[in-house]
Each structure stands twice: as structure tokens, then as C-alpha cells.
Write a structure and sequence with these properties.
151 residues; mainly beta; globular; disordered N terminus; signal; DUF2155
Length: 151
């Protein structure tokens, strides 16, 4: 009797502990820089300006992705979770929380990247992909739907 009671208590405590260690879905945790803040309000939509490189064709493309939205670049789906800039008194910096998933035809989707990318140091946390490179250029208030530019 005591053994079964002890096992029941142990099982309950393990279940509670495992429930507490699983993180709840939430906003991305901000980097540890107190100077970072969202882009100041103004006309337009808070967006990340990104640049994609297709290594096969050597073409670059700049595009704007609103915070909380996704866009496609080749087979990649890029979602911007947040986009922050430094306060005016600090050195310029833009940082965006990106989630990048590869949707290759005929294959299961593969999450390639999830984390903060810094505009000033793109190699610090870069997308590692054989065909595509993606980097953050800035965080801005985009005006409507800006056309993509290809070079």
C-alpha cells in the first residue's frame, strides 16, 4: 500500500515537473541589449527589410516582410517574428527574429533557421543553405506593398 502510494506521488510529481519544463508558445525572447526597441510608430507597417541571394543564378532580391507575416523566396518561407532597432543615442543596429522553413517540392518541409539575425553582423547568426542566403538589412515602417528589386 505504501509502495503504491509512493509510486503514485512520484508519477504525479514527474508529470507536474515535465509540464512545467515545456515552454509555452510565445513571442520570441528579445536579445539582451537594453537599447533595442521596436521601430517608432509612423506611417506604414512595421517591417523587416531583407535581402535574399540565389547562389545558383547569382541574383539578389530585396523585399519587405511585415512583422508577424511570411513571404516566399525560392523554396523558402520566411516569417518575421519581431524587428527591433537601437535607440538613436546608440550605434545603428537592426535585428529581426526570423523563422525560415524550406518547402522543397516532393519533400517534407524542413526548418532551417529560427533565431535573431543582426544587420551589422550577418555572419553571427546566418542561414546555412546550399542554394540561398538571407540577411537582414533594416527594420522600418514600410509604405504599402513595396516592389521587389532584383539585381
Amino acid at each position: 500500500m505504501r509502495l503504491s502510494l509512493a509510486l503514485a506521488l512520484l508519477a504525479t510529481s514527474i508529470g507536474v515537473a515535465s509540464a512545467q519544463t515545456q515552454p509555452a508558445p510565445q513571442q520570441p525572447q528579445r536579445p539582451g541589449n537594453a537599447n533595442l526597441r521596436p521601430v517608432p510608430d509612423g506611417p506604414g507597417i512595421r517591417s523587416a527589410e531583407l535581402q535574399g541571394l540565389d547562389k545558383v543564378t547569382a541574383r539578389t532580391q530585396r523585399f519587405y516582410v511585415p512583422v508577424g507575416k511570411s513571404t516566399r523566396f525560392g523554396t523558402l518561407e520566411i516569417t518575421v517574428g519581431d524587428c527591433l532597432v537601437n535607440v538613436p543615442e546608440a550605434p545603428p543596429e537592426s535585428v529581426a527574429y526570423l523563422t525560415i522553413v524550406d518547402h522543397k517540392p516532393g519533400q517534407a518541409e524542413e526548418k532551417l533557421f529560427s533565431g535573431w539575425m543582426f544587420a551589422s553582423t550577418p555572419s553571427l547568426s546566418a542561414l546555412d543553405h546550399g542554394v540561398y542566403d538571407v540577411r537582414v538589412l533594416s527594420c522600418t515602417m514600410a509604405q504599402g506593398s513595396a516592389p521587389s528589386s532584383s539585381r
